[in-house]
Amino acid sequence: MKQEEYYELSVSSLTETTGTLINVHSFLKLPYYKGLDYNPTPNELIIEEAVIDDKIYKIIAIEKSAFSHCLNLKTLRIGKSVEKIEWNMYRCDSLSNIFVDKENKNFYDIDGVLFHKKELIAFPQGRAGTYIIPNGIKKIGKHAFKSCNISKIIFPETLEEIGINAFYGCNNIKEFLLPKSIKKIHPIKNPGRKEIPQKFYLYTDINKSNPLTITEVIKMFSI
Q1: Could you tell me if 211 and 200 are in contact, meaning their C-beta atoms sit under 8 angstroms apart?
Q2: Of all helices (H) and strands (E), which one includes residue 219?
Q3: Each residue of 98-124: pLDDT tens digit?
Q4: What's the pTM?
Q5: Residue 70 DSSP code
Q6: Full DSSP string of 138-204
């Protein structure tokens, strides 16, 4: 017998009019496969409001892992009411775009990549190839490129800080060329808490003759 399929947002910290999105799977009455891989999942989600007991709540915050294991999710749309996002998602393998409502005062997107002021918050995990971070961005947020499929990232000359585990699980990237502007790099590890294998090169090392490990660059840029 085929099981009924429907989706409902799970929210917490409810006030009279607002809520925090914690998990889009909590009320999924669907079979799941391979332990944690939920199927099917929607191709597109619009995060604006949730209806609970016939009452409408505006979503103002998104907690970490809220969209984890949405394997088929291709497009995420952030509504104008969202004020806080804690990005740390697993297995959003198909995610290609994160769009933000033009009326949102806290976040914005550039070509489907999520930003807050001068910080890159989240890059869609499903994209491949090379990504050039826009000039003017000063920080890459924690988990921003987590488990991404891209093979190369080009940093802007304005970048000053790389957040905790910003490149966690980015196994297709082989190296990073650090810009002159970099000031601080936080610890970055791979699954299993192993040091990431990528090599780092300073902007002065044009010939890439002196590759550095993440441990070495953290010591250099930990102040």
Answers
A1: yes
A2: helix 214-220
A3: 999 999 999 999 999 999 999 999 999
A4: 0.87
A5: B
A6: -EEPTTTTTT---SEEE--TT--EE-TTTTTT-TT--EEE--TT--EE---EETTTEEP--EEE-TT
